[in-house]
Amino acid sequence: MNKSMLGLCIAVVTMLIASGCERLSVPWIGADAKARHGHETQQPDDSTAVMAKEAKPVSINMIGTKGTTVGTATLTQTAEGLRIRLEASGLTPGEHGFHVHETGACAAPDFTTAGGHFNPDGHAHGLESSSGPHAGDLPNLVADQQGVVKAEVVAKSLTLEKDKPNSVSKAGGTALIIHEKADDNKTGPSGNAGARVACGVISAG
Questions:
Q1: Which residues pair with 175 in a beta bridge?
Q2: Are 82 and 166 in contact (CB under 8 A)?
Q3: What is the pLDDT of residue 35?
Q4: Which intervals of the chain are annotated as region Disordered (predicted)?
Q5: Given this model, what pLDDT does residue 86 score?
Q6: How many structural domains are present in the chain?
């Protein structure tokens, strides 16, 4: 093979390798994909996911029966539901009922101003009830030997989106309540959870 033919073959092989490498290295996300291929990755059309991005977290002060702050809670909308992160102290060790109540008012010492459980669907009380639960029924909290609780729960039946019937940001607001005893998760109207020992207002949106 003469030198001119050898040079031509090398050039062809080099072009083929370069072409193959460029094809393999093309990213399929973002602006580069749109520029090279005329399309881009589409996000799922999920209104809940869109709303979750737009809703801002809500911070709540929990007050005790003496009217002083005993903890905080942060509410964040997620695609799965309303995430509630709670830290509180000054509780008796053991289980405590935990609910969202229907009115955004926390007047110490008994917090009866918060009304009953948030229950826009008219269900029976209790996570274990065949006709329940209330939208505001949440799992029991567990305080340690120092009376401190740190908990996180995602409530699938609640939202921060104010125009929804199950919104905790409804007109008049709602309230987070911690009870003195465990909720038995079946007995109405509040699972024999006893007195209300802490309360936090969730303001209207």
A1: 101, 201
A2: no
A3: 28
A4: 117-137
A5: 98
A6: 2
SS3 state of residue 61: strand
Q: Which residue has the tokens 């005790």?
A: 64
Q: Which amino acid is at 204?
A: A
CA distances for 138 relative to 14, 15, 178, angstroms: 66, 65, 10
**Exposure of 139 in the CB half-sphere (CA atoms within 13 A):** 14
Whether 27 and 53 share a structural domain = no
List phi, psi (to 5°) of 82.
-90, 120
Q: What is the pLDDT of residue 205?
A: 67
Peptide bond into 109 cis (omega under 30): yes
Looking at residue 10, what is its pLDDT?
44
What percent of the chain shows pLDDT beyond 90?
54
CATH classification at residue 99: 2.60.40.200
CB 174 within 8 A of CB 126: no
Which residue positions in the chain have pLDDT lower than 50? 3-6, 8-45, 47-53
Residues 205 and 145: beta-carbon distance below 8 Å:
no
Cα distance from N-terminal residue to C-terminal residue, the chain: 82
| Whether 20 and 85 share a structural domain | no
Give the per-residue pLDDT at 199: 98
